Amino acid sequence: MILMEDVYKTYPNGVAALNGINVDIKQGEFVYIVGHSGAGKSTFIKLIYREEKPTKGNIIINEIDLSKLKERKVPYLRREIGVVFQDFKLLPRLTVYENVAYALEVIEETPKGIRTRVMEVLEEVGLKNKARFLPAELSGGEQQRVSIARAIVNRPRIVIADEPTGNLDPETSWGIMKTFEEINDKGTTLIMATHSKEIVNTFKKRVIAIEDGVIVRDEQRGEYGYEV
Ligand SMILES: Nc1ncnc2c1ncn2[C@@H]1O[C@H](COP(=O)(O)OP(=O)(O)OP(=O)(O)O)[C@@H](O)[C@H]1O
């Protein structure tokens, strides 16, 4: 569950990125965050995984009140949240297998357990046969699949994707959306910021539109709603 109550974020340079956000996202929902460039989408997302802190207001993630979360406990929160970026952010010198294994929290995992889990997620994203490849040897869509595998390897309850198809062609983006739907079907909450009218209007989900740091629209099975 993700709950925000009257959340404001002003950056140190004085830019007011969010100006009173109220939102309630239940476990298992699939939500698009839409809005013009600079509207506050990335800031909204960064507040969820504690990359940024709010200037004012309450944020509760999976029963954790972030205002009361001690710095040393932040890793516990991060374990519950997988993040996927537009530019993949893979480690270039590690293989596909190593990129995913590296992200796996190795608590109580035997080497065999690690191998089983990594191969399981690589199969889930359709990359089992590319385990030994380096990121540079993969297409953009395949690299994004590695980053999705890395995001889900710890079985987080929430997956956040900030413009995940921004660098991909439409056909590849479609495949990525199918993978996100499969992850969501298993009960994982999915939050995705996007500028893609085609995706939002094709794969119908809840749509939250942000303008100048406030939510101006929140619809179940909504439309993209902007001209592109
Ligand atoms: N670290 C930062 N320091 C100062 N200002 C920032 C910072 N990050 C974002 N901003 C400002 O906050 C506002 C909202 O930015 P944000 O990145 O959240 O928008 P966005 O909707 O994600 O945009 P885009 O679609 O272009 O990614 C913008 O005016 C931006 O310049």
Topology:
Blueprint: E1 2-10, E2 16-25, E3 30-34, H1 41-48, E4 56-61, E5 64-65, H2 74-79, E6 81-85, H3 96-103, H4 111-124, H5 140-152, E7 158-162, H6 170-185, E8 189-193, H7 197-202, E9 206-211, E10 214-219
Parallel strand pairs: 3-8, 3-9, 6-7, 7-8
Antiparallel strand pairs: 1-2, 1-4, 4-5, 9-10
Bound molecules: adenosine-5'-triphosphate.
Number of distinct helices: 7
| Amount of beta strand | 25-35%
What is the chain-wise order of helices and strands?
Answer: EEEHEEHEHHHEHEHEE
- By secondary-structure content and strand pairing, the structural class works out as alpha/beta
Secondary structure: number of strands: 10
Intertermini distance: 32 Å
* Percentage of residues in helical conformation: 25-40%
- The side-by-side strand order for the widest beta sheet comes to 6-7-8-3-9-10
Overall outline: globular
How big is the Rg? Answer: 18 Å
Bound molecules: adenosine-5'-triphosphate
Task: Quote the average pLDDT.
Answer: 95
Task: Specify the biggest β-sheet.
Answer: 6 strands, mixed
Low-confidence stretches: none
Protein traits:
alpha/beta; 228 residues; six-stranded mixed sheet; cell cycle; cell membrane; 31% helix; transmembrane transporter activity
Describe this structure in words.
- α3 (96-103) packs parallel to α5.
- The two termini are 32 Å apart.
- The strands form two sheets. A six-stranded mixed sheet has the order 6-7-8-3-9-10, with helices on both faces. Strands 2-1-4-5 form a four-stranded antiparallel sheet, with helices on one face.
- It has seven helices and ten strands.
- The chain is an alpha/beta fold and 228 residues long.
- It has helices at residues 41-48, 74-79, 96-103, 111-124, 140-152, 170-185, 197-202; strands at 2-10, 16-25, 30-34, 56-61, 64-65, 81-85, 158-162, 189-193, 206-211, 214-219.
- 31% of the residues lie in helices and 26% in strands.
- The mean pLDDT is 95.
- β9 and β10 form a beta hairpin.
- The relative contact order is 0.20.
- The structure holds adenosine-5'-triphosphate.
- Adenosine-5'-triphosphate binds next to α1.
